[in-house]
Structures are given as C-alpha cells and as structure tokens.
Write a structure and sequence with these properties.
Elements (H helix, E strand, L loop, with lengths): L4 E7 L8 H15 L3 E6 L8 E4 L15 H13 L4 E7 L6 H5 L4 E5 L24 H5 L9 H11 L12 H16 L3 E4 L2 H9 L31 E7 L7 H8 L7 E7 L3 H9 L3 E4 L6 H6 L3 E4 L9 H8 L4 E4 L13 E4 L4 H13 L2 H8 L8 H16 L3
Parallel strand pairs: 1-2, 1-4, 2-3, 4-5, 5-6, 7-8, 7-10, 8-9, 10-11, 11-12
Length: 410
C-alpha cells in the first residue's frame, strides 16, 4: 500500500494551543499517526512525537480584512507540499495564509472542515455589531458590516471605548474590491476542494446559501464526555431544579437575553447557576437576575459540576456553529434549554430539551412560560429521551471513510 502523507493546515495559533479547533486537529493528527499515516501540521509552532509540526510565519496579521498576500510564504508552502509528498491537505484554519492558496492547491487533493464562518464572513461569527445574526453572505450587507479600519486593533479598540460597539462605523472606510477579492478567493478555494465538512447542518445551510457549491458532508465532532454517558441515572425526587450556564454571559453568548427572561420567570423550584468568567458589569447583571455566580472553572471540574445539575442552559444569539458544551451537557444526562441557533438543533429537540428563537418576542414569551411551568416530572421525562453524542473514535471513523473515498480515486 502506498504511503499516504497528510497535511493539516491550522495556522494563526500554535498547534499546542488549548482551543476548540487546535485541540481537534491534534486529536485527529495523533489518531492518524497511530494508524500508520505520516502526518504534518502547518501551524505557528508546536511539537509532538507522533506528528511533525511545520512552523509557518508570514507578515500577514491573523485577523485582517485587507488583501492577504505574501508570495514568499505561498511559494514556501508549495515547496513543502512537494518536499513532503503530501497526498491530502486538510484545511481547518488559514488565518494568516495568502488567500491565493487555491492556486497552488489546484490539481491536488484537499478537503476543508467548516468549523466556523471564516470563509464567508469577515467577522467570522455572522453577527454584525449591535444587530441580529446574519444567515448568509451578501456583498451589500457585508460592506455595511465591516470597515477596513477594523484591521487596526488599536483603532478598533479606541473607537469601541469612545463611541460604543458600532462606533467605528462613524468613520467608514470600505472597499467593494477588497471584499469581492476576499470572497471570490475563498469561494474558489472551497469549490476546488474534494469535499467540505461542516460541523453542523446549520453551518452547511449557511455556506450553501452564501453561494458555495460543492459536495457537503456534515460531520459532528466527537466529544470525550460520550465515553461516560450512563444508560441509567438516578431519578431525583426533590422539587428543586438546578440549571447551569457555562463559560460566558456576553451579549453574543446570550447573557443579557437570559437575564432579561429570568425577570419574567417566577418559578420557586428553579435555581440558576453560572460557572465561568465575567466582568464587573456582567457580575452585577447576574446578581440582579438572581443567578448564582460561582466564578471560573477548569475543564477537569466540568463532570463534577454537571453531575450536580438538573438542566443545562445555552442561549447564544449568534449561529453557534458546533457547540461542544451542549454535547457535554447531554452526555451528563442534562436536558438543555437553548436558543434555536447554529448547531444546537442538531442535538437538542422538543424531547430532550427546549428550543426558542432569540429574535422572536412570541417565542421568548413562550420560553418564559415553559420555565415558569417547569417541574421535576418534566425534567425527568426529558432526561429519558437523551441519547449520547459521538465519541471521538466514531467521528474519526466517519472522517477516514471519506478520506478513503478520495484515496480510492487514485
């Protein structure tokens, strides 16, 4: 069997960085190496005995809305592809990669994981400042959503402090040519891939609606918490229902939305907890809403925290692409109260939780009514319908099955 050499492109951060995408890439690379593949990761830096990290440094800023051009680094990348005899390129992050990457990949086999909306949204999160979430890329709306001034972090930060979240738009500096070049380059890259792997059905839908045509295969990322899923669980008799919100209470994560909703909820059985970091203003907001603030937590503490809870909360107002927190909650047998955004509906439904539209006043009112009527019997009923999510191995096997289809074309 001919040796298959795989290159993962995950630039902008160290391969050792503790983040969702980098953690995923390391996990995939290690498993592939253990199964006999020669694996490389193109990254800022990093080290591992199982795979080789190829350091990649350019003069391009990670988050820049200007033309991304660095011909010298692009040429170096082409040399790497030839020197390492790469059979398949798997793109995850290309924050500081020349946007003409599709030119050197032409005629080569490559796939792209759509972990987020980087390739179609200058903001990545599909959320204009101070406004509701978008659902597809559109030239005219995107031109009104970002300014080239934002590529300067100092200018962006100063404007936000002085004028508020939309302050920088008092000084528009926009270029249709820059946007079109950025979008068209990304479009050619994505449409030249063998396959695209969105992390949720909503991510796939948004990319399709943005005009990207290719073969899509939605792949839910596995979560280690699936190993600890219990078919049987202890049914509680107490009337008290403890709900938990994790990580952040920012506007994007829906903190203000949830706090506003709780002011309309008067169910004495409910007790809401928050574990995570927040600023002084957010802490004040939590206390005013009656939420118990526990402070920051470590990932290792999460199983213990969730074991003490009855239900999870996830209320983002952006199209949260593939929320791992939801998987962890479900695998801990917690029904989830959540917004109908991004990848959440791939896992949460009317049987194992509750979903609502954060932009619909009628649905928000119905969600408040649900919380007001929530009791122990309903919680236990929802728990009985929870199924575990994929394990990392199950996800890996799905991914490698698609890899094999590509290799079989040789």
């Amino acid at each position: 069997m001919e040796e298959k050499n795989i290159l993962h492109i995950c630039t902008g951060f160290s391969a050792d960085f503790n983040g969702g995408i980098t953690n995923y890439v390391r996990s995939i690379a290690k498993t592939q190496a253990e199964r006999g593949y020669k694996v490389y990761i193109l990254s800022a830096e990093g080290k591992d005995d199982l795979y080789e990290v190829i350091p990649y440094h350019t003069g391009i800023a990670n988050f820049s809305y200007a033309h991304k051009r660095d011909s010298r680094s692009l040429k170096k990348l082409k040399e790497i592809l030839d020197e390492k005899n790469i059979s398949l390129v798997h793109i995850h992050l290309m924050l500081n990669v020349d946007q003409r990457l599709f030119k050197i990949l032409k005629g080569r086999k490559y796939v792209v994981s759509l972990h987020d909306y980087y390739f179609i949204c200058p903001r990545i999160q599909m959320l204009p400042p101070g406004e509701r979430s978008c659902d597809c890329a559109n030239t005219s709306s995107c031109l009104n959503c970002f300014s080239l001034l934002e590529k300067n972090r100092l200018v962006r930060g100063a404007s936000k402090r002085v004028f508020g979240e939309r302050g920088i738009y008092r000084f528009p500096l926009k270029s249709r040519a820059v946007y079109r070049s950025w979008y068209e380059n990304n479009k050619q890259l994505l449409e030249g891939a063998e396959m695209l792997f969105p992390v949720s059905e909503r991510v796939e839908e948004i990319y399709r609606r943005s005009g990207i045509q290719n073969t899509y295969h939605t792949l839910h990322i596995g979560n280690i918490s699936a190993y600890h899923f219990k078919q049987e669980w202890e049914r509680k008799e107490q009337t008290q229902i403890d709900m938990v919100l994790l990580s952040s209470v920012s506007r994007v994560k829906g903190g203000p939305l949830l706090c506003s909703m709780l002011s309309r909820v008067h169910n004495p059985a409910l007790r809401v907890h928050f574990y995570g970091r927040c600023n002084e203003a957010e802490e004040k907001m939590l206390k005013a809403a009656g939420i118990i603030y526990h402070g920051a937590y470590k990932q290792a503490d999460l199983p213990q925290i969730l074991s003490q809870m009855d239900m999870g909360i996830m209320t983002p107002i952006w199209e949260d692409n593939g929320p791992q927190v939801v998987m962890e909650m479900l695998n801990s047998r917690l029904p989830v109260f959540a917004t109908r955004m991004g990848g959440i509906p791939d896992f949460v439904n009317e049987e194992n939780g509750y979903l609502f539209d954060p932009y619909s006043e009628d649905e928000i009112a119905e969600a408040c009514a649900f919380l007001n009527s929530l009791d122990r019997a309903k919680v236990e009923e929802m728990k009985s319908h929870i199924k575990r999510t994929l394990t990392p191995e199950e996800h890996f096997d799905e991914l490698m099955a698609y890899y094999q289809k590509i290799f079989d074309k040789d």
